[in-house]
């Protein structure tokens, strides 16, 4: 987003990620001054707001509900109140730097009420909104006590963006069922306003990943990171060794236990691959304050332990498990060293890891096993598409990936690379901004009639 807000001479408004009480007034002033130099407008939050708004309503209610984990969704009137008040704070901070004729782009599920809060005070400002997670089916969304308020909030936007058409379709049916507004093609008619909705599959900075992967290969051995040297040694010990990669935030939507169980099933069914195939699993700590995340961590730790206990030996560890985040350089080394990417979310708005893996495969080898529940699956017909709830099928797909002829891998990867390179992050952002201006023009034509 950096390039976009600089290109349009914009301001970046948001929470700087630290609690207000943890800093003195002098430190906060220094933070504000530094951010101000970059045209960033900080909105400071207290511990209580972070707890109830961010960890509370955002991550204990909207996140599980929108990812179809209805049993995890906590419907709590206290967190809802704070969600509203923090959204108002964000809207007020935005309004304070807005002038008539400006455009605003609001991002994601933490700010669903902000579009309407801005629009009601600044009707001559064009508001765009992009949702980075799925929008669920109405049958799931309707369980939320504040369903109408959230939709009203989103409908303050002139343009609503989703990763894929399915999410847009669910949103339309929700709007129709809750408010009965007329919808034709991708336009929602709300009294004297026309609101546009569209799918914008988010891309990545393709060249950044591709160039970094090329640079990694070209480095002399002694300049490579320790991780990379170890990876190369691993392959040297036996040429038929293979690595399968798994990278996510440790989140229950990512299907990490499903993946581990499928890998165990694969080792059980195909013993000839034991000692040859290792699953490299990077799980980045995330939302550790929320209980469901703590339970997931325990489940994953136990599964890794049991697979390594059952199939490991003194010189073979089936799962290399990293519970931490790694620097970008190591991420690239993993992407470019692993033969297979195993990406099995049970729900995922898009999933950028799949695209980053594709961009990093400079020699065009490599296979992606991809859940049909990820938005990215719509753009990746050349991957091996699986249902993450079908352990047997996933185990078979691991076998298929590891035995896929190189020519076929290259053919599939070429198609994927062309597509992901063409619709990269810059194209995505420009397409959104272009549509936002179009939404503004449609609205003014409509009012002029
Ligand atoms: C949400 C939606 C949607 C991961 N580990 C490390 C690291 N990463 C980076 C990856 C990738 C990003 O984090 C993860 O992005 P995803 O898209 O896979 O998933 P979410 O975080 O859940 O993102 C998702 C996305 O928003 C965008 O709209 O695709 O569906 O859930 O970029 O590279 N980066 C570094 N070290 C790590 O250890 N440096």
UniProtKB/TrEMBL annotation:
GO CC terms in record: cytosol
Entry GO MF terms: alpha,alpha-trehalose-phosphate synthase (UDP-forming) activity; trehalose-phosphatase activity
Top-rank taxon: Bacteria
GO biological process, one term: trehalose biosynthetic process
UniProt record similarity statement: Belongs to the glycosyltransferase 20 family. In the N-terminal section; belongs to the glycosyltransferase 20 family.
Full protein name: Bifunctional alpha,alpha-trehalose-phosphate synthase (UDP-forming)/trehalose-phosphatase
